[in-house]
Amino acid sequence: MPMDKVCSQCSASFEITDDDLAFYKEIAPVFNGKQFPIPSPMQCPACRLQRRLLFRNERKLYKRNSGISRKPMVTMFAPDNPYKTCSQEEWFSDTWDPMAYGKECNFSHPFFDQLRALNLAVPHPGLNNTNVENSEYTNYALNQKNCYLIFGAADNEDCLYGKFVIFSKNTTDCLSVYSCEWCSEGVASQQCYGCHYFLNCHNCSDCFMIEDCSGCKNCIMCFGLRQREYCILNKQLTREEFLSQKAALYPLTSQKIGRMQQQLNELQKNLPHIGSHIYASEDCTGDAIYNSKGCKECFDINHCEDCHCTAFTPNGVSSYDSTYSAPDGVQWCNNVTCTIGHRCLGTYMCWYTNDVYYSINCRQCDFCFGCVGLRNKKYCIFNRQYTKEDYEVLAGRIAEKMTAAGEWGHFLPPDLSHFAYNETIAQEYFPLTREQALALRFRWRPEDAILPDAKKTIPGEQLPDTIGNIPDDILHWAIICSATKKPFRITKPELDFYRRMELPVPRLHPDERHRLRLAKKKPYRLWNRTCAKCQKPIATSFAPDRPEIVYCETCYLSEVY
């Protein structure tokens, strides 16, 4: 029978099912012939996700000297951050030995106190990139060429200002887009070309300001259309009528784009919304789920099976509470983030690891417990080498001690994170004030004052309205964000993109533009509602007090097709 629990952090009620209990029993590790049961979670899914996200700093980049070579570098560790950092090249080199920091386990001290000391002593890579070319200002990025301020991305070329941009070219200001080209301001969309200001769209081309459209071409300010062309505000036009009305919108200005968004918002007030965006999937709940099966309360996943409370993950199998396991996924893992491997528990930034527990920044390691910064090692505890037999005995004693302390089976404590709360993406999805963060015992770092290095400073609202009136000299200006008053610069590739796409230069700082895109995605939690048409119960990211008309998948598809 399902078990009702109350979150130890936010006091929300949540449910543990029989399937959950069976999973925890199945993955419980065995050390020296004894199995160590995994307890059910103490926090609700949202608070568990928040706790994992506060370990990942994507977007806050700094200039700092390497702790190994003293050379200047771009890093996600602020100059006043107490953790040691170095370049990726240095971290993977043979110039230092992580085993030199090894310590014998002291059973008179708490496990996490010892892991905390080791975590502070061992150097950490300043960025997490693989195979990047002319893309210095990226992080958590794989196979990037000529990219700038792209984060959590893979296989891109000539992309600017984005997050979760995958297999794309010539995109600017996008979030969670796959296989898109010559696009801007796209969110949660796939295989779009020449589209701008689009949300939850698939296989669309040459569209502007559209939402929840599929297979559409040459549409403007449309919602919920399928396989349509030459539509404005969901009204079918002839080609000549469409081109005439489209021409009247140009040249585009920020004010015109704002009015177009208002018109689209008014249009969709009386149109049904699908409860969850789940595509080519079976027996799944959550949102932004693709090609998956048997996944519950999952978000932004692709090709996953039997995963629960998992987010931002491709190729996951039978894993719970996992985030950011690209590109090769996780199997039989629990409470992990930025991890790729099998049968891992409580790990952060452990890639291609198997049977690794409560460890940080390890690569190609097996059977390690409480380790930091190891590469190609087996049977290690606190960065110290053991035989297989001694490892089994000692790991069992540690798991027993952690069980008695109520630590075993849960994620790493927040104070083991390398970053302040407001540096991490936890602040993006679970925004807190400084006072709220400190009350939860999360660290907080004041924003650095940014002094513009430019020959001219101009408020964003005073920029020329149209791209045709923007001079080349803007590349030397500091623009003051109209919303946050933070200065920012326009790069040449960015200006070239706006000119080709006939888009106005933005008046908002890249961070503010990113925040507005995040706001377009629904919360990473589910509520129980009923379909507004057939009254069938549905689990959806639309909170019950939201005004949208929400349909189940069956009713929605019958409406749009």
Low-confidence stretches: none
Content-based structural category: alpha/beta
Roughly how many Å apart are the termini?
40 Å
Q: Note the total helix count.
A: 12
Fraction of residues in H or I helices: 10-25%
Query: How confident overall, as mean pLDDT?
Result: 95
Percent range for β-strand residues: 25-35%
What profile does the largest beta sheet have?
11 strands, mixed
Question: What is the 3D shape?
Answer: globular
Task: Output the radius of gyration.
Answer: 25 Å
Give me the side-by-side strand order of the main sheet.
9-10-11-12-13-14-15-16-17-18-19
Number of strands: 38
Which short descriptors sum up this protein?
single chain; alpha/beta; eleven-stranded mixed β-sheet; six-stranded mixed β-sheet; 21% helix
Walkthrough of the structure:
The chain has an eleven-stranded mixed β-sheet. Strands 26-28-29-30-31-32 form a six-stranded mixed β-sheet, covered by helices on one side. By secondary structure, it is α/β, with parallel strands linked by helices. The chain has twelve helices and 38 strands.
Task: Summarize this entry quickly.
The chain has twelve helices and 38 strands. The chain has 561 residues and is of the alpha/beta class.
